[in-house]
Amino acid sequence: MLPHWLFFGSVKTLCSFLQISRNMHQGNRTTVSGFLLLGLSNQAEQQKVLFVLFLGMYLVTVVGNGLIILAIGLDSYLHTPMYFFLANLSLADISSVSTSVPKMLMNIQTKTQSISYENCITQMYFSIVFVVIDNFLLGVMAYDRFVAICHPLNYMTIMQPRLCVSLAVILWVLSNAVALIHTLLLLPLLFCDSNTLPHFCDLAPLLKLSCSDTRINELVLFISGLSVVTFPFALILFSYICIVRAVLRISSTEGKWKAFSTCGSHLTVVLLFYGTIVGVYFFPSTTHPDGGDKIGAVLFTVVTPMMNPFIYSLRNKDMKGALRKLLSRKIFLPLMPWASDLSP
Fold first, then answer.
1. Most buried by CB count within 10 Å: which residue of 7, 23, 122, 170?
2. What pLDDT score was predicted for residue 184?
């Protein structure tokens, strides 16, 4: 599913550029060596509640998405393109919450708000990777449902295992490329005085803190952000328009319901994902009430990945059956045996 060499290669390259860039651009100016993450609350009594709350949500997210991956890998009935991409989505969700929540929990526990420059940039890099891959995967999953419903006789011919694996690799590569571009453009920027960030190390707040000219960064952010959101969303919209037209031509009510039910989980995740994206990134912070932007960021960063396993397991009888079989097993078999189908 995930080409691990991408992560190790990206981290190694990122750290090298971080050190080179800091040495080249500091000069005689004083720059910050780290940032302060303000978090959601400064009140001591609320810190314990937040720690328990976010630790619980983090564990639920990791366990829930981990069970989804294991169920798909161990149940041969789920070795299909739709569940293959779902496993990638679950892996991205686990990785996404792991980029920010553990650091936030550590800061709450140690009563500190600091994060080093290098760790902040690395956190930003991986947060971009997983936001982008989520967009891409939701678009590909919508196309998969389009082929399954509108071209059922050609489904296995079109969505071959080799194509699915190739698509997954390409999407992960593109996501890392987008994150790397933003990171390399950010590295020459100087951060002179202010070093406080609202909650997580995100690209837009970091650009606001910089005392350098950020017009190129903002232009690239606008173009890439628009592309990353627009293309998958357009594919989703096109797929569901075709799906609705195809379903409406089905004469029986039972047939219509069965066709729509195969898309229900994915459509729910799409609405949740893009709804929080619009609330966090497309509405200016001045329109939010006090703390509203922080709540939106938490919804997008933590709640959405946590909800995905519940959405897919509660609305999908095949997934519920696979989870029941998984929980009843005592020994886990090797994951994703359908990869053997890729051998010539």
1. 122
2. 93
